[in-house]
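Researcher: Good morning. I'm working through a list of sequences from a screen, and I'd like to move beyond sequence-only analysis. For each chain I'm collecting a predicted structure so we can compare shapes side by side. This is the next one on the list. No need for commentary yet; just the structure.
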Amino acid sequence: MRLALDTNVLGYAAGVGDDEPKRRRAVQVLKAASRQDVIIPTQVAGEFYNILTRKGGHPPKVARKIVEDWSAGVGLTAHSAATMATALEGAAFFNLQIWDALILTIAAEAGCGLLLSEDMQDGFVYRGVTVTNPFAETLHPLLASLLETPS
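Model: Good morning. Structure tokens for this chain:
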């Protein structure tokens, strides 16, 4: 299954936030996700750079390298003007934050079935993309099955 990552998953995996249980879970989820087709929306890459420099204290050149390495390891997926128009429509219709709607729209256009995010409503489905919180006590069945699949 193709899946997209939100910023918080990358941030916790990078150790930003000093939350060891979430860091361990993020690493576990990312290892399982590596067996899948994974994308990082460009919006997420930008947010990841921001948290690495602001919350993580990384110098800009180090943060850039971390983001570039992640982007090279998975698919970095950009948006177009049409993607933004669709995201604006989704934001207005579903009362979403525009940046969340943009991430969801990019994931949908890339053919993702899952978006791993702590910030959006667990189980919310948008244009075929199911949002699932990898840090929830009870995992969404789609994510649970992904984590149970042997490597």
